[in-house]
Amino acid sequence: MSNRVMIFDTTLRDGEQALAASLTVKEKLQIALALERLGVDVMEVGFPVSSPGDFKSVQTIAGSIKNSRVCALSRALEKDIDAAAQALSVAEQFRIHTFISTSTIHVESKLKRSFDQVLEMAVGAVKYARRFTDDVEFSCEDAGRTPIDNLCRMVEEAIKAGARTINIPDTVGYTVPSEFGGIIQNLFNRVPNIDQAIISVHCHDDLGLSVANSITAVQHGARQIECTVNGIGERAGNCSLEEIAMILSTRKDELGLHTGINAKEIYRTSNLVSQLCNMPVQSNKAIVGANAFTHSSGIHQDGMLKAQNTYEIMTPESIGLNRSNLNMTSRSGRHVIKHRMSELGYNDQDYDMDVLYDEFLILADKKGQIFDYDLEALAFMEAQAEDDDHVKLQQLVVHSDSTQGSATATVKVEIDGKTVTEAATGNGPVDAAYKAVARASGSDINITSYQLGAKGEGQNALGQVDITARYREQNFHGVGLATDVVEASVKALIHVMNLTWRADKVADCKHKKQLQSQQVLGGV
Fold first, then answer.
1. What is the pLDDT of residues 474-489, one digit of tens each?
2. 339 marked ligand binding residue
3. Is 309 annotated as a binding-site member?
4. pLDDT band for position 105 (50/70/90)?
5. Is 14 a known ligand-binding residue?
6. How would you label 436-456 residue by residue, b for 16+ Cβ within 10 Å and e otherwise?
7. Distance CA 86, CA 106 (A)
8. Quick check: 207 and 174 in contact, CB under 8 A?
9. Bridge pairing between strands 474-482 and 198-203
10. Cα-flanking dihedrals φ and ψ of residue 60, to 5°?
11. Per the count of CB atoms within 10 A, which of 203, 240, 468, 496 is most buried?
């Protein structure tokens, strides 16, 4: 048996479906490219049959990724498998992942079928998926609560039907490591054709045991772990990719297993997912939390000064977190910026040097000193920009009187090439600025969440504002970054306005196509 553990990332499928606001196609592609750099073996990027947007995302990513295998999810239904195959067809190689529930409670209460009927559906789905690709994965949903006799039977028949990967999910995070390890061991002991497939595990974190269960599973013979960056996902989340990668790397002597993950991309990928998904990483999160390499105790600090490995079992550099932080000024040339971006792990294709340098100079004039985290923040915001923005901020002027509890804001915005200036008063500077933007644009955005954070350290840190807005039964996530928090707030609002404008354009196009189809049918 191979000692290589395959990493199956489902950040863009299981992770994304738990977000307050769905990611755009562009944002999903950014994450997919980051996962490719990270070195995941397989990335599950969506559920194509669920919506036209998910179909387009899967298709776009499948046509862009070359070094990881792209996978799409489908229920054990032919229409689902057709959608997955069609979306993935642009890829040279791809995987179809089909699933059905196998636990008694799911079979009887959710599917309202007999186990034999479910078994027949599973076999049929695997055989149908094999028409499109040799790489078919089958999942026994809620395997952790499935009677072992039924589970063994299902796994054996799915392998006979042509599944090359069998996934054993702890769908509701119910099992404990000894129990889950026993399930995997039973499968290897009782399923006669188990050697014809890779056994995978997909563990949820409802009891905080997803990583422990996954490690126990590979100790008992599983060779694929399904996980997400930062452990995002349904309810309490999924098994954390970065924790799995660093456990197998740090404890290779004990476990004797390894992955193909490029660990130096972990920190950067974690930050990207956190920002795009609007899901902050808790400070004490293992591997990527802000405190993961912080030492506060005097005894610990003394030990660190004497020998780093007294209290650190891995280095920050091993996950791509650079200890050195070079400061730059407006006198720093392009070659310095390019060098720093390279040191931070960015390729020339990851950013537009002209745009980045112009933004760098503007920020340097405001702050004086620019640090690595500033550069990364600028690169992140540049990646979110679109050429066809409907609304652009040109100027913002705010006056606030804390004694009176009121503020006035004047905004100048460009809307479809036309400059509009409006003013408004509010309970505070952000409220006033938002009302002025609403007047100028004629649109009223329902903001359901507002978060203010900082990028960097000290009083010169950049302010980052994340908002979630509700528009036409959909949630949209906007982000703004500036040295001034009011400006950052307005930028986040305008980001959402541009997203909703594009959503309206897509809806209009779909409506026109429907009308054209009706006219054609009417003519016939």
1. 889 999 999 899 999 9
2. no
3. no
4. very high
5. yes
6. bbbbbbebebeeeeeeeeebb
7. 29
8. yes
9. unpaired
10. -65, -45
11. 203
